[in-house]
Write a structure and sequence with these properties.
This protein has 83 residues and is mostly helical. It has four helices and no strands.
């Protein structure tokens, strides 16, 4: 299916930049790429998944049940206090 669209100079420049950045050959590929980035849920994007995997590897803390994070943080001794 071939459709003709009119683009202003800025939109045309943006498509050219996207084609160059992502190795796309046609304006249609660039438009499809932009649409997929806008429509696709961020949770499904590969870079989001990778970021979540990195965060999952980080050290975590256990907040006791029934205590809010702020309450837990307030209950911790100051770092500069002597034991």
């Amino acid at each position: 299916m071939n459709n003709v669209i009119s683009l202003n100079e800025n939109a045309s420049r943006m498509l050219s930049n996207i084609k160059e950045m992502y190795g796309l050959e046609t304006d249609s590929e660039a438009i499809e790429f932009m649409a997929s980035q806008c429509i696709e849920e961020p949770e499904l994007r590969p870079e989001y998944i990778e970021k979540m995997k990195e965060i999952d590897k980080e050290e975590s803390i256990h907040v006791p049940q029934g205590m809010s994070l702020l309450e837990y943080l307030d209950s911790l001794p100051d770092e500069d206090e002597d034991d």
